[in-house]
Write a structure and sequence with these properties.
Elements: H1 5-13, E1 31-37, H2 41-54, E2 59-62, E3 78-79, H3 88-100, H4 102-106, E4 117-121, H5 124-139, E5 145-148, H6 149-155, E6 170-174, E7 178-179, H7 182-195, E8 199-201, E9 206-212, E10 215-221, E11 224-233, H8 239-244, E12 253-264, E13 272-275, E14 280-284, E15 289-300, H9 308-321, E16 330-340, E17 347-350, E18 356-360, H10 370-383, H11 397-400
Parallel strand pairs: 1-2, 1-11, 2-8, 4-13, 11-18
Antiparallel strand pairs: 3-7, 4-6, 5-6, 9-10, 10-11, 12-15, 12-16, 13-14, 14-15, 17-18
The structure holds flavin-adenine dinucleotide.
The site of flavin-adenine dinucleotide has 39 residues, from α2 and β12.
Protein name: Sarcosine oxidase subunit beta
EC number: 1.5.3.24
GO molecular function, one term: nucleotide binding
């Protein structure tokens, strides 16, 4: 069934009885050409682009829980392409362009809202850094606009510009950035991949990876052994654990990141704002909740739930930035597991095991990457060569020292 305004009208007038399940629930076959481990945003988009761009459909996505139950459904939904380092620039630029056509492409409303992203700066040094970054972003063909305090005050009058510790001097504005509905992205890719014949197998945890004579042969799962010619590991926060099943030791640490949402409020923040002095970012959902987050919990963990000291620190940052938020009541918080790489940039690469591919290290920026990552990982798996926008996302860089350190935080996982 194609989704359209006409369908909504038709189903509404006939008791909404005609909607069908959006994907099948198949039993796993004994063998596939390609198995993707992980039914998050990146696994599902990879499956879709393998089918659509490369005509490969004998594929299974194996998900240990339910589709979209991982980070893809837990993030703060910010989408942007304001990256300035070679390697990241072309990749995120490519990904944002895919976002811009995604609802039409998938026939699924992913609710992309290009409401703009403001990154605030609080010192002259930070302004100079943002000016340089803005020039690089414009050079790569994306948009960036440096705003001084006067211009910013007109746009965002509710910020605390005169905060004694972190006065706001201006912002780097990225008009094409914004938010998207996270669940819809997972569901849209899942439905479109299923329609092209991909088997999406839920409640199927991979417990082992079979390797013989240096080549991958398949996987062991809680629903039995499944053979495959190629296997892609796309499990975000579980990357190190799953890669270890094939004897790989990854340069990744898993850390926890929380997010928060307030009660529904009337429209007050019509954009995305990120605080440049601490780590804090906020937007308002279509339901009215203020959605925000901050730093990770800073210790390695697979807990998927956050700690209270970090909740206190994040709400302090919120109050510093916009004291009016103190009137809002926080309804919920939740956590996800971040696959932190040492330079804060991702890995889309082959491994030394024939037929075994790796997509990992998205840190807390992987939601915006979902379309680009799926496109590029599918390209690598299908052709054996990196896509031109992911040429720098090789594992080798951790050996050679050619890091892509956008934050300038050094080789410490939890600081990115
Ligand atoms: C609180 C929070 C806020 C964030 N905010 C943003 C943001 O604003 N913008 C942004 O760009 N990014 C953001 N991110 C990061 C982004 O969500 C992640 O980088 C991205 O979702 C990771 O890729 P994924 O969607 O494939 O991961 P996931 O959805 O986690 O998918 C991985 C899947 O693998 C499955 N899996 C694991 N092990 C196995 C196994 N053994 N067998 C089978 N399946 C397995 C998991 O169950 C999971 O479903 C945020 C993350 C969090 C938690």
């Amino acid at each position: 069934m194609r989704f359209s305004g006409w369908q909504v009208l038709r189903q509404g007038l006939t008791g909404n009885k005609g909607w069908k399940p959006q994907w099948r629930n198949p039993e796993p076959k004994p063998e596939y050409d390609i198995i993707l481990i992980g039914g998050g945003g990146h696994g599902l988009s990879t499956a879709y682009y393998l089918a659509k761009n490369h005509g490969l459909t004998n594929i299974a996505v194996l998900e240990k829980g339910y589709l979209g139950g991982g980070n893809v459904g837990r993030n703060t939904t910010i989408v942007r392409a304001d990256y300035s380092l070679p390697g990241n620039s072309e990749f995120y630029s490519h990904s944002l362009k895919l976002w811009e056509g995604l609802s039409a492409e998938l026939n699924y409303n992913v609710m992309l809202s290009q409401r703009g992203v403001y990154r605030l700066f609080h010192s002259d040094g930070q302004r100079d850094h943002f000016a340089r970054a803005g020039n690089a972003i414009v050079n790569q063909g994306d948009d960036a606009l440096l705003l001084d305090q006067t211009a910013l005050r007109k746009r965002l009058p509710y910020l605390d510009y005169d905060n004694a510790r972190f006065p706001i001097h201006g912002a780097l504005y990225h008009a094409r950035g914004g938010t998207a509905r996270h669940d819809a992205v997972a569901w849209g890719y899942a439905r479109a991949a299923d329609q092209r014949g991909v088997d999406l197998i839920q409640n199927c945890e991979v417990t082992g990876i079979d390797v013989e004579n240096g080549r991958v042969r398949g996987v062991q799962t809680t629903r039995g052994a499944i053979r495959a010619k190629k296997v892609g590991i796309v499990v975000a926060g579980r990357s190190s654990q799953v890669a270890a099943m094939a004897g790989l030791r990854l340069p990744i640490e898993s850390h926890l990141l929380q997010a928060f949402v307030t009660e529904g409020l009337k429209p007050v923040i019509d954009t995305v704002i990120s605080f440049g002095m601490g780590h804090y970012y906020i937007s308002q959902s279509d339901k009215g909740g203020l959605v925000f987050g901050g730093d990770m919990d800073f210790y390695a963990s697979y807990a998927q739930r956050g700690n209270l000291p970090r909740a206190e620190q994040v709400t302090q940052a919120a109050m510093t930035l916009m004291p009016m938020i103190g009137k809002a009541r926080v309804l919920r918080s939740w956590g996800g597991i971040m696959d932190m790489s040492p330079d804060g940039s991702p890995i889309i690469d082959k491994t030394h095991i024939g037929g075994l591919f790796l997509n990992a290290g998205w840190c807390y920026g992987g939601f915006k990457a979902v379309p680009g990552s799926g496109w590029d990982f599918a390209h690598l798996i299908a052709t054996g060569h990196p896509h031109r926008t992911a040429e720098k996302y090789m594992l080798e860089r951790f050996k050679t020292g050619h890091l892509i350190d956008e934050e300038g935080s050094g080789a410490q996982h939890n600081l990115h």
